[in-house]
Structure formats: C-alpha cells, structure tokens
Specification:
This protein is α/β, with parallel strands linked by helices. The protein has helices at residues 12-20, 31-39, 59-70, 92-102, and strands at residues 5-11, 43-53, 73-79, 81-83, 86-88. The strands form 2 sheets. A 3-stranded parallel sheet has the order 1-2-3, with helices on both faces. A hairpin with a 2-residue loop joins β4 (81-83) and β5. The longest helix has 12 residues, at 59-70. The protein starts with a strand and ends with a helix.
C-alpha cells in the first residue's frame, strides 16, 4: 500500500507565543522533531512556516528562520506593519489559508 502524502502548515507567530506562554516557564519546541512527529510514516511533501518580519527583526530570529530553511521548511515571511517597535503581523494567516487551498 502506498504511503499517504502530507504537507505541514505552521502559523509561526501563533506557535511561538503559545509555546512562550505555556505554563509558568513556557516550553521549548524541537522543530525537527515536530516535523517528524507530524509527518510520521507518511511521505512529507513540504513543511511551511508562516511568519512576519520587519526592519527591527532580531538577528536571533533571522538565524531561526535560516535554520528552518536549511532543514527543509519553506519560510513564507510577510512584512509586519507598525513603527517605533510596535509592530503587528498582517497577512500571514491569509497567505497560509490561500496556499493550503491552492495546494
């Protein structure tokens, strides 16, 4: 029997804040293990990470996004809107939903 195919779509900011705010001290997520667990025995077509960036995005966050890219994730980054350090993510949810429907 052929293995089923799977695609993974992750709302990065939502996952980040949920992990950060879990319990008293938050929780660390091993992204490679998460990808493995979600795809299990199925053929993984691609894992997508939707997020937002701006001119103030930290080097650590850029390194994290590069890590994801290097390890098989397609990173889709929207420009966040705002100013003076008060930025708001816009468009990632719509991009995620549209791409899911398209694919």
């Amino acid at each position: 029997m052929d293995s089923q195919r799977v695609m993974i779509f992750i709302d990065g900011r939502n996952l980040f804040y949920s992990a950060r705010d879990y319990g008293d001290e938050g929780v660390d997520i091993d992204m490679l293990e998460l990808k493995q667990q979600l795809s299990d025995e199925q053929k993984l077509i691609r894992a997508y990470w939707y997020d937002s960036v701006n001119a103030d995005t930290s080097d650590a966050r850029h390194r994290f996004l590069d890590f994801l890219r290097t390890n098989g994730f397609r990173v889709v980054a929207s420009e966040s809107r705002g100013s003076d350090g008060d930025y708001e993510e816009k468009g990632s949810d719509i991009k995620l939903a549209c791409e899911m429907l398209h694919l």
